[in-house]
Structure prediction request, 238 residues.
Amino acid sequence: MEISGKRALVTGAAVGTGRAIAARLAAEGAEVVLVDVDDTAGQEAARTISAQYEHLDVLDDQALTALLDRTRPNILVNNAGGGAVLRPCFPDADPARWSASLDLNLRAPMLATQLVLDPMREAGGGVVINLGSTAGRGLGPHVSPEYSAAKAALIRFTSTLAPLRETHRVRVNCVVPDWVATDRGIAEREALPPAERGPALIPLQTLTDTVVRLIEDDALAGRVVLLDRERSPELLEP
Ligand SMILES: NC(=O)c1ccc[n+]([C@@H]2O[C@H](COP(=O)([O-])OP(=O)(O)OC[C@H]3O[C@@H](n4cnc5c(N)ncnc54)[C@H](O)[C@@H]3O)[C@@H](O)[C@H]2O)c1
Prediction:
């Protein structure tokens, strides 16, 4: 799908990866709607990249439904997420706390995807990009089991949806980054002792290049691109 002239909605886009993705899509010629719960940073980001800002808590089903109904994006980037660094985690966190991570990192992108399907089909097609994480890959331990489990499920959710290309003309794809060089990521890595920093962070350009590729390439549906800090971007086999 050509990005220029399309309406793109990016969730959690006031800062970090969402802001970088929103800026890139605007630079590619999309009409960008940037949503977040942080109105100050969101409005500042929208001004900087000539996008529209809307307040949206993606955990608010009614507000999410109303906004998607009103904006009818051709491209949806389910970026709002995170919380891997919050403590306590499962099993020390109470159920309400760990459920909130599942809601943010899995349920909200699932609901948003469901809500855009019919409008995208009516508009002739669309693309959904989900933000996974390497925390959702592999079989090792993770400090935040709820974050890791939600991201693993989001990857699998994406890959099950390949048939939507035929039924709805909607392609759902997922980018799975390792630690990214956002302002916060850079500061957090530099706060570590050098021996614990590991390889260089994923450049924002690599992340946004991948998002653009997953939107533009009409052959990619239900596909997952892994951004590992030690390897080139890898389109995983289905
Ligand atoms: N930064 C990384 O290294 C990294 C690595 C792997 C995956 N990811 C994923 O990328 C996405 C963004 O990560 P980030 O590091 O830029 O996050 P961040 O915490 O820096 O920014 C997240 C943004 O989402 C907004 N947000 C939080 N809850 C929201 C809600 N309920 N509704 C609307 N907006 C909400 C926040 O206000 C903030 O602006 C997440 O899904 C995260 O899991 C990030």
The pocket of nicotinamide-adenine-dinucleotide is lined by residues 11-12, 14-18, 36-38, 56-59, 79-82, 104, 131, 133, 177, 179-180, 182, 184-185 (CB under 6 Å).
